[in-house]
Amino acid sequence: MPQDDDRSIIPDVPRGPLCEYRKRAKFNWKDFKLVLEHPDLIRIKYKVWKKLQSEPLFTPVKSTLSVDQQKERAAKQVNRVADLELAPAEVYSMDYKYRVRFLMSINEALHAVCPSMSVKIALGVGLFTNSLLAMGTERHSAIYNAAWNREIITCLAITEVSHGSNTKRCRTTATYDPKTQEFVIHTPDFEAAKAWVGNLGKTGSIALLFAILYTADGQNHGPQGFLVPIRDPKTLEPYPGVIVGDIGEKIGLNGIDNGFVMFNNYRIPRENMLNRAGDVTPEGSYETTFTEPTKILGAVLESFSAGRLGIMQESSNTLSHAMVIAVRYAALRKQFGPERDGPEQSIIEYQLHQWRIFPYLAAACILKVSVFSLTELYLETVQKSQAESNGFELLSQIVSEIHALVSSSKPLVTWTARDAIQEAREACGGHGYLKAANLGELRNNHDPSCTYEGDNNVLGQQGSNWLLRQWKNSKVESPVGSANFIERRESILGNNFESMLKAGCVVESTEFITHCFEWLMCWLLTSTEKQIDASSANGSDRFTARNESQVYRARDLTRAYAEYYAMISFGKRCARGDFPEELRPVLNSVYLIYGMWCIDRHLASFYAGGFANGPRFADAIRNTLLTECGRFKDSAVAIADALAPPDWVLNSVLGKSDGRLYENIQTEFMTNPGALEKASWWKDIIPTKMKSKL
Questions:
Q1: pLDDT tens, 594-647?
Q2: Is the pTM of this model over 0.90?
Q3: Which residues touch 359 (CB under 8 Å, ≥6 apart)?
Q4: Over the stretch 5-48, which tens digit does the pLDDT of each residue have?
Q5: Burial, 676: exposed, middle or buried (Cβ in 10 Å; 0-12, 13-18, 19+)?
Q6: Of 2, 12, 432, 518, which cross-links 485 as Cys (Cβ 3.0–4.6 Å)?
């Protein structure tokens, strides 16, 4: 049960117009927040926000800065964060899981305040050092320590102008010269230039670069990692043989100096090759160095999943912030009413408005819990891999399943956040288009999450590929349990809507949703397999057959799998019962709204697979969704309070917790820079005929 000490770390909300809806909730919103987030992590975030609030460098800006000013501001913020020492020294001596979870929570708090600054730190410190740990050895410890202590500005150079997702086909080369014991880094043409490299455009001094390794005998050993100096760290002047620059203004996140770089037979020492998995001897022979498979496996897991989990954490928060703004605005904004000349009612009362935003509000709760659950699983697995040298087979299975879950969940979370922000913007009408509403900034800064660290449509295929392997295996290898339903495939596919009702399954239940999703995934798996087999039988190669099975099949499977895992995770959290009983009805509503909303989006597949015929199934799903949304209305503002950061972090004139919507809009209108001043260019726009009379 929540303790008073846990509730006390969460600041109270001010009294005001929102209290009309707050008092309708039949639960304590702080207790609800403690179900969604662990109190220790909440405490970390509020401590970070309190420190940053007193720092002028983190005060939200009123007007859009120039691109160069945004980069300068973000770079200075990075330095200031290092000076503030947000993580106590003892954190770094704690075990892996505690340490990384602590740092992830700091990153979440930083991202909410300034995404550009957060991403710069995540790339230059977190992702760089994680990758160095995964691929490097003791000989790279000096660079690791310098990066971790922020003595140097680092970056990862993987993507090229003409190659992103297909990293194996990158064209930057690293050719070993045994005479000098150096690697020669070369960019054959502009298409092979490393591009979109965060921190490289103006500030980075060293890159962890992926290049195709060639030994002196001309043999291609595939992509390998190398530490490549780019600029003098004291002057930031590029070294000879390096052409480096900034790619220019982007849609958002312009505080990040994304850069491009080309190399002209640029030499680096042999020791700069990251040699944990393979190395080149001084004489020029390539050797693999796998010695402790469990630790290497865990390190690889850390490298490819840490960044994606960070993106999911940030995206679930962005989704939450968009819904806080939309819900608070909906409770305060009044338009029309049942009587022509009578009082107007809040737009949150309208069914259409509820249907538009409440599923995203429920999604914010579900996905926040599921991302936490997946992060816990990931951290525990990496920690176990570092502590043990046995159990390789089981660990390998867990790693594969986590990779499938991350590859499926990252698209779900980022796409849901993207769509929620747009719906929130439109649900706030014209006022939502104000920069001060902050929905435009949320949208533009979130958007790249759908394509970096794995393009969603491409990344998701790794999830469906893993599921297909389990489908075809004689034994399902799912130690996490996310694919255990496959073992019951025959009985699952024997079900349909009518048989479930006859068996006593209630539509308005979590069990019904679970059964529906297990049927859906089994049908999509068998449908995808049949499509691949049919394409192959018609002469298509495996590559083509897989490509032709994505639309309506494997792609939908990936999403359904991620939704299923999210709901199972939320269900497990609710099953713990360490919360007041009065929370149970609203938690059940969250589950039902999200579950019915997801099923509604898959209706075509349910009918195509014969799970249902006629309107009864669709009517049952949609009526339940609308009924639950109607009940949710009285809880929505309290749930928004549970999801909300402090007002200065939310930074929205429409979403302030005081509920004084129109007073806040008036202040914004009247005090924005130049609002009441005559334009300095007024003479230039006076009509010519009028000028002649002056």
A1: 999 999 999 999 999 999 999 999 999 999 999 999 999 999 999 999 999 999
A2: yes
A3: 593, 594, 597, 625, 629
A4: 889 999 999 999 999 999 999 999 999 999 999 999 999 999 99
A5: exposed
A6: 518
